[in-house]
Amino acid sequence: MKKTLYVLIAVLLLAALFAGCGGQSKSDQPPAGVKETQQPAQSEASTAPESADTADLPELPAAGSGTVAKSYAAYSEAKSALITRLTEGLSNNPDTGMAVFSFFGVTMVDVATLPVSFFGSGQQAAEIGLSMVGATNVKYTENGNSYTISYSDDENNTYEFSGTYDPAADALTCTATANGKESIFMEYRKTAFGYAGQYYMLNDDGTAIAYVVATDGENGTVGFMSAAKKPAALTGSEAADFPKACDEWYSIQGTTITGKTSDGKEFNFEYTPSESESN
Known about the structure:
alpha+beta; 29% strand
């Protein structure tokens, strides 16, 4: 049920994001080709809990209960919790509020890699889930611990996500292509301290969004890479603060937030979330 909620929320957030974007620039890419779709007007009856259509939805992502799905969900929860703590802390400090805009790239990449959340879920879940955000011709294949999801958009562009999960290392590596050209690379690995992850996404204009993350319980660090080159693969032996090697990074340890902004300014401050933020 928890997995169901996460995937449905992600899908609904994605649909809402592109419904409110108006005209998208080429650099604001949806999930490797998922386009904004015109949704039919919904009547009150269509949104009722007892609707026949919505009654079947809870079983959908439940199919994604395999090892890779559970692993990806656990990693995503840890990363999301870290980024939430960091952005709340940064936005509540007058000297670091603007740093929150650096995390927009994280949101863009996370939205673009939505199909990965359907690894291990089967054809039906992937097809129905991705069709909700405009994908067509969805095809899901699974061979041991290797997974592939391909689909098209309304302009007949083709996209493919291919990933391999290593259960022994609790690690997933995935690449995505757009019309046969690599557009996204992502991976994460379980480590002694938590998780290490990294993301690299090429935009149509040749620019790239790249970031690395290390989670350590409620603590962790996020780093943004300026080099427009795909990073080397993770080894699993990374230090808990390895994102600090980036030109721009933000870290939280307990109530202490430290970092280096995009203009090279270093900072350090204490942050205790309010009761409403911690709930």
